[in-house]
């Protein structure tokens, strides 16, 4: 990966069926930043089961006038699991928002959590606690080692598809039969 056009910003990593790291088995990771210095993204298909958005709101200084609508939280990755990020539609842009592409942005301020709680946040959102990160050339090595497939996601996949269906749907959108994939990478 030699030039900026090779970077994976706005793409998804799809874990290969033979992923040996249990934290990433059957995951779909949305890449928010990628450069020669490394990469960062969020797992978008693993819910946090024992902690909800309402639980999060009660721990923050947020007091909505109405009960908070049920909303799932996601395990964004194994790093800094108490740090929150929101992947969201670009209809909501604030000063701390990082726009990834024309459809998806990421924010990490308490303002977006407050706005979501009050029903005035972005139309589409996915709240992640924690993140995934790779050092310089680490992700490139993992791709060469056949750990990940790369695909261009749409907002339907990221925000509206059921979490338990996202990985398979990503595989289907790539157009491959995972039963025919080799678990070994070839190098000429």
How many E strands? 9
Pick out the low-confidence regions: none
Structural class: alpha+beta
As a percent range, the share of strand residues is 25-35%
Mean pLDDT, as a whole number?
86
Architecture blueprint of SSEs:
Blueprint: E1 12-15, E2 28-35, E3 38-43, H1 53-59, E4 73-75, E5 79-89, E6 98-99, E7 104-107, H2 110-117, E8 125-135, H3 138-144, E9 148-151, H4 155-160, H5 163-174
Parallel strand pairs: 4-8
Antiparallel strand pairs: 1-2, 1-9, 2-3, 3-8, 5-7, 5-8, 6-7
Highlighted features:
globular; 9 strands; 188 residues; alpha+beta; nine-stranded mixed beta sheet; 5 helices
Overview of the structural elements:
The protein is of the alpha+beta class and 188 residues long. 21% of the residues lie in helices and 28% in strands. The protein is built from 5 helices and 9 strands; from the N terminus they run βββαββββαβαβαα. It has helices spanning 53-59, 110-117, 138-144, 155-160, 163-174, and strands spanning 12-15, 28-35, 38-43, 73-75, 79-89, 98-99, 104-107, 125-135, 148-151. Strands 1, 2, 3, 4, 5, 6, 7, 8 and 9 form a 9-stranded mixed beta sheet that branches. It is globular. It starts with 11 loop residues before the first strand and ends in a 14-residue tail after the last helix. The mean pLDDT is 86.
Summarize the structure.
With 188 residues, this protein is of the alpha+beta class. The protein is built from five helices and nine strands, in the order βββαββββαβαβαα.
């Amino acid at each position: 990966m030699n030039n900026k056009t090779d970077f994976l910003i706005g793409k998804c990593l799809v874990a290969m069926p033979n992923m040996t790291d249990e934290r990433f088995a059957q995951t779909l990771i949305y890449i928010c930043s990628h450069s020669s210095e490394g990469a960062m993204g969020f797992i978008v298909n693993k819910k946090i089961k024992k902690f909800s958005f309402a639980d999060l709101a009660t721990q923050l200084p947020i007091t909505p006038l109405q009960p908070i609508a049920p909303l799932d939280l996601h395990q964004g990755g194994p790093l800094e699991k108490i740090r929150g990020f929101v992947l969201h539609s670009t209809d909501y842009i604030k000063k701390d928002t990082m726009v990834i592409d024309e459809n998806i942005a990421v924010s990490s301020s308490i303002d977006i959590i407050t706005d979501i709680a009050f029903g005035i946040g972005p139309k589409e959102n996915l709240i992640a606690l924690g993140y995934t990160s790779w050092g310089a050339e680490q992700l490139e090595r993992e791709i060469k080692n056949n750990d990940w497939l790369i695909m261009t996601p749409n907002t339907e996949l990221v925000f509206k598809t059921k979490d338990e269906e996202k990985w398979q749907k990503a595989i289907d959108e790539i157009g491959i039969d995972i039963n025919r994939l080799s678990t070994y990478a070839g190098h000429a």
